[in-house]
Specification:
413 residues; alpha+beta; BirA Bifunctional Protein, domain 2; Rossmann fold; 8-stranded mixed beta sheet; 16 helices; RNA-binding
Amino acid sequence: MIRAVKGTRDILPPSSSVWNHVEAVARAVFRSYNYQEIRTPIFEETQLFLRGVGEETDIVTKEMYTFPDRGGESLTLRPENTASVIRAYIEHRLDQLPGLQKLYYIGPMFRRERPQKGRYRQFSQIGAEAIGSPSAMVDAEVIEMVAEVLTRCGLTGFSIDVNSVGCPACRPKFIEALRQRLESVAPQMCGDCQRRATTNPLRVLDCKVPEDQPIIDALPSIHEHLCADCAGHFELVKTLLSDRAIPYEVKPRLVRGLDYYTRTTFEFTHGALGAQNSILGGGRYDGLAEQLGSKVPAPGIGFSIGEDRLVMSIEETQPDTARPVLDLFLAPLGPAAVRHCAALAYDLRKKNTVVEVGADGRLKRVMETANKLAARYVLIVGENEMNAGAYALKDMASGEQTTVTREQLLARF
RNA sequence: GCGGUGUUAGCUCAGCCGGUAGAGCGCCUGAUUGUGGUUCAGGAUGUCACGGGUUCGAAUCCCGUACACCGCCCCA
């Protein structure tokens, strides 16, 4: 038997309707903030991600689906979408358009990691990018917007963590201070941290080993090293979030894994997800466009929601959300009624009524089928009904049966 | 990429120390002629994940592979 490849999966009903719901909610919220959809290719030149995501990141060093095209060019299945959006922004000179560019996307991403619950090799992200402004106003609006998406999806119990990772002016100084301090304390820490102390000092802050926590708490904080501009920016973001009564927590240790982040970073987590508790992540990337060859600066901020994880949280939190509606089930008795029902269904469906036509057979059997499909009403169409010009309409919930003419039926459904 | 647990009917699982498989749910059929949800009776379905080994004999023991899940790394 041929099975779906490792780390990929089929989204079947009724789960697929939850996916559709989530996407519809996101589109509606994005629209209300005046975002418009962008669709970029699912694969790009490998070079885009090397430069955009960062050569030293885990994504680039060990997780990309990279393959040579038949012409010899190296292509890569997109591991994330921000780099592609910025590439499109530059390529199509969107900086020449008036105002901020506010773009959203929904689609599959690919990372070759060891699969786990909530972690797949093909997964879907719902994301948005606001490009063209360095203002803290935009940061706060983006965080507000994504919180609104989760809330309107019916999700509760998520928490919002924010931080500032500084800018090219102040972050290197912080990293240097961190490195120096780690020289003395790292030997007392876990093996991973001893390694990180030299390879990636920022990662030490993310360590979850309980014994290391007191040591980490005593390490220098990024906030002591932010330059005046970065500190002011972060203060304003926090003030604006408070103005909106959005509950957030400052996590000085929140370090994101992509190289392009500057200043504001944020992450939403949810307890129902297990080890992969991050439901969405995002941040500001003021230097990314220039890194990708833009001649003009294009400061931006964005996020991406892990759609698989969002759907999973919703399904675990509220299990009975996905229930498709079947308005009317037509039960034909005899070949003539089958033709009659087909024509009737055609007219009803033009009005977007959800209609199913049963197979000809014993009424008992047809009723059983209608019941299993959870039909609201069943319309019985046999010789008697066709001769009389009136159908028997049964309310499946109450069991009551009434008589309706074709006109009455079309007016009602 | 590293470590661990698991893989038996469509689903959830049982199967003790090796003697070639079961339950519940679901599905199908019937309880006479045009009426569901309850009840009753009957029925179908598994190369016991795959490959190899030990054995007279393996779902049951051993090894390998695949996949899923848990933890690590990292992230969505």
